[in-house]
Structures are given as C-alpha cells and as structure tokens.
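#onboarding

Welcome to the new folks! Below is a worked example of what a typical request in this channel looks like: someone posts a single protein sequence, and someone else replies with the predicted structure as tokens. Don't worry about understanding the tokens yet, we'll cover that in week two.

Example request:
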Amino acid sequence: MTDRSIIIIGAGLAGLSTGCYAQMNGYRSHIFEHHSKPGGVAAAWTRKDFLIDGGIHFLMGHRPGQSIYDLYRELGTALEGCCTDMTTFGRLIDEVGGMDLHVTHDLDRLADDLKAIAPDDTKLIDDLIATARAMQGATASWSSGMAKTPELMNPLDYLNMFWANVREVGIWRTYKAFLGSYSRPVADYVRDVNSPLLRRVLVNLFLPEVPVWFVLMLLALLADRQIGLLAEGCPGFVRPIEERYKALGGEVTYRATVEVFLVEKHRAVGVRLADGTEHLADVVVSAADGRSTIFDMLGGRYVDKKIQERYRSWPLIRPWVMASFGVAREFPDEPHFSLIMLKEPIPLGHKVINDLYLRVFNYSTKFAPPGKTVIQASFETEWDYWENLQKDRPAYDAEKQRVAEEVLARLEAHHPGLSPLVEVSDIATPYTTWRYTLNHRGAYEGWLPTAKNITTFIPRTLPGLSNFYMAGQWVMPGGGVPPCLFSGRHVVQILCKGDKKQFVTSIA
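Example response:
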C-alpha cells in the first residue's frame, strides 16, 4: 500500500463502508470511533440473556437482483441464511376505531382489505396498488441509481435513470411519482381521502412527511420479497463489515473521540482527539454528526448559504424512546411489527403519546433464551425534555421507570398477564442515542425525510476546504442502511477520480 492515507471519523455503517472501499482501492485508512464498538446507530446491547436491538428494523434489497444486494456482498455481509423474508410489513391496530389491518406482501389482499375499511375510496386504492405493483420492477433501477455518486454523474446517466423508470413504471405513473400527486407528502395527499381510517393507515405506514411514492416503493419491495429481517440483529450485519475492513488492512481505534479537525491553508491534514493526541493524514472523511462536524470541529468556517439554511431550517427526524422487555413467554403468531393507536394516551413531558410502535423479535432464536422473547415498544418524543431531565439523574431514572410501567399497562390490553412475565426492562431515551453516537438532538437518522429534502442532493465536500469529505446520513437525507453504505462508496469514487485511478470494488 503506497497510496494516500485517510482518516475516517466514525465506525458506523458509513464510516465502515468508506474504510472498506478505501482499502479496496489502495488507500491506507484509519477509523476513529467515539463508542467502544462499531455500528453507530445500528446498535444492539445485551441485558442478562436478552439481546436488545435498537437499530436496523429491516433490510432492503437482501436478495439478488438489486444493486443494494451487490453493495452488501462487496462489504462482506453474509446475507444467505441470515435474513428472513418479511411477508407482513406491519399490523395497524386502532383501539378507538376498532380497525385491525395487516399490511402484507400480497397486494391483491391488501387492496381488498383497504377497500373493506374504505369503500368510498375504491378508485384511489386501486390506483395506489396498481402503482405499487408497477414499481416492483423499478426498484432495481432505483437502487442502481445510488451506485454512482451524483458528483460524477453526467446528463446521460440521469437520462438513462429516467428512461429505466419509464420503461418499468410507465410515463403516466412516473410523472405522478416525481411531479404529480405521488410526489406530495403523505400528510398532504390524504386530504383527498374520504375515509378517516384509510387516512390513518396511509399516514402511519411510514412517516407522514415522506412523499407518497416512497411508501409505494416500500410496498413494491415487500411484494418482491426484497425486505428482510436480520436473524442476528444489528451485530450480525455490522460485524462482518468490520471484519471485512480489517481483513483489507484497515485500522480502527475505539473510544477515540475527535474534538478538532486539523486544517492548514484550508486543507484538512488530520484530527486532534479528546485525549490531546494528533493524527495526520492526506485525506479526512467525517462520517460523524453533521452539525458537530461543520460547526464545532471545523468552527463553522467552511459553509455557504445553502449549508447555513439547511442546518437552520431543515427539520430533524424526531427522536424516539425505546422500551424493551425480555419476557418469559413466546409470541409465535404475532406480527414482527405493529402500530397500536392508543385509546388511552401516555402523558410525557409537554406531549401525550398516542401511538406505540411494537417490535416482536420472534423470528430468530438469537434474541432470547428458549421459550422467551424480546418485545420493544417505541414512540416519538421530545429531545429537550430528556436532555434537561438527565441533569437530575434520580428524576431521569424515575421517569424511565414510569415510562416502562405505562407502556406495559397499554400492552396488557393486547397481551393479558404480560407484566409478571417481564424479566428485563430497558429504556433507551434520545439522550441515550446522543451519548453513544453524538447525533445532534438524538436524531438517529439525521434529517427528516420530507418530500423536498429526500430528493435534494448534498455535496460530499465543504466549500473552501480541500482534502475533506463527508459520508453518512447528513449528506444522504433520510438515512437508512443503503444510503449510508452507498455514501462511503461515493466518497472513494470521488477520491479515485481525483487521483486518476479506476474505482474497483474487489481485490484481484
């Protein structure tokens, strides 16, 4: 290895991906990670004999036929035998309206079930399902569009991407997805829906701010059996990538918090850690929190109006509380994901919690001892409330205990006798997320994926600063596994272009 050296900040998915592709292309890389283990927000931890998984909910493109699958393979993940197909995206339970809907991979069944709860919206439902069905073939084109960084794409690349979508989806549906009604946020689109129940279904399939086409794409991937569950949770996905990185010759240092980027004559030359040590390199890549990177570690010196406006006004993804329980019983017939719209909200801070997002880890034996199960109820919350509360540790711990009791009380309505069977309780707050990942305000996926910003291109560089790049969710709005992994690939593609090297994805 005689090529240039690279320092990478963060051993999350974006940092590990950057490191792997750097090593594949002859660079010498060293990752510095704040936490004691890799993964970033793709995190899991053990409580007694229970594995609490707080990260990847599902994996897109885990089967051949997608560029995402090729990406996983390049990074050393072993998908065969480690991914279970999702056949149900989730179950929606409305405790007030009495609705109990399973969103399955069978689009015909889904159409019939939606029409049963919303007979006055039959035409709208038919069009939504027809578009999801048409998008089944187009998801491969969508994923292949992320394989090359936008900085290196030319007009012909974009034209080919457009025509690939048109060939698969059709001109009219492509127009609706990107310029017409399906480009609108779901929360806006549902104003045209007659049935209150259908409005609640559509708004809660993902996030209300995402464009309609994003939800339809998820349904298309589900129908294509291209959404999977990780049998070993986050560790089974992250560990192989870390091993791949080390096998390629990469170096990683944990419990190493970067405080300052070293800059000489507007050129990044290294980092200074919290322990005062300095490390130099030819190139620096930040796969860390965007705000800390730009405004703290670089002092806000390398920004333009677009960056200032983005960090001033773009909404962040709302932070979550995760209440996980190790339970001495099995749930063999329970869907892996459910959304419970509560009849009795949970008071918390300045808000009330109306919905619980329930995960049941019943698809693998890796999460709990025999005869036992981990269940996890999550909900959106306020950063300021928890950040202020943690300054008083007894009050913080007491509130976490109260939340656990409130959540269990709501779950008892669906699983009577649950509380006495709980052997482990674990409450992770937004402050927990920040403490281990340093994500600003506990925003575990960065920017809120609104209909506007999810399609906004963010450069991997900063104005006026050379030899410096960014990877991860803060330059890929919406975050998630594939975008973060692709962002590391993108950075190395740019480096190879500048160094007049051919970008490669494997070692001969």
